[in-house]
Amino acid sequence: MHKTPAIALFPALIACVIIALMAAVVSGSADLSFSDSLSAALGRGTDQAVAVVLELRLPRALTAFSVGGLLAVAGVLMQVLLRNPLAEPYILGTSGGAAVAALLAISAGAGALLVDVAAFGGAMGATLLVFGLAHGLGTWTPTRLLLTGVVLAAGFGAATTLILALSPDQHLRGMLFWLMGDLSFAWNPERTIVLLIALVALTTVAARHLNVLASGEIQASIVGLPVNALRYLIFTFASLATAVAVTTVGVIGFIGLVVPHLIRIIAGSDHRIVIPASALGGGALLVVADTLARTLMAPRQLPVGALTAAIGVPLFLLLMSRSSRYR
Known about the structure:
single chain; ABC transporter involved in vitamin B12 uptake, BtuC; mainly alpha; 327 residues; 0% strand
């Protein structure tokens, strides 16, 4: 199969990101025309228009972009770690741990800050639990890690259902929206943008090592790579990215699975290309999904996680069918 060179791929992805961000900035339930929205984005126009665009729409769009990028990069790292192109961060139970901790905080009446702290602690705690159980008394293998994550994710799912069943009615709507992804309160994108830039930079610098590790641990050991230390580092980075994403916008699936798979089909498996391209593609996809979530039935907002699933499922099935025909 002919692979698209990076010189053509990256300009196309950057154009998609720009178009998606522009569409997010000019779209919404507020009564603003296209020209008014663009003027407000440049700091011109009425105070109301500037406030809507620069204080609500733009921060939300930038948060969606950075969170989508984090999820896509985390998916790439998990696929390297498990040497499985169908792996993604949520399969290891990270989002399940975050969901259980956040729902417990919401049901207790905690504020937004405490809910974020609980979600982050739950995500990192679930990561450590999966790693500890998979390690056992000896070294862990990708298969053991994957199976442990699947089992614990099922357990977290059962705990989530139990919490929802026992929670008072006034908390259920907020809980369900959080579980399905919600960017309604995504007003401070600085944290996720900084983390995305740092993560892409570090992993792209280490892309040659990731290429070797993805080809197998024996090959990596032969060329002198510290396999165990590299695996721990990958696991930490992927878990941190997932935890921050879940803390920021709730549980959003399929981006970490679909986007890296699409990039590999288009451009091959060189992680010097796959990582930054996945960050751009994941960011653009979540911006588009969030824009649709708040405009399709405006002023009512749809859960963005449901739309990423609606986009991701048929897209992934299409990609799988095309790659199967090629093979």
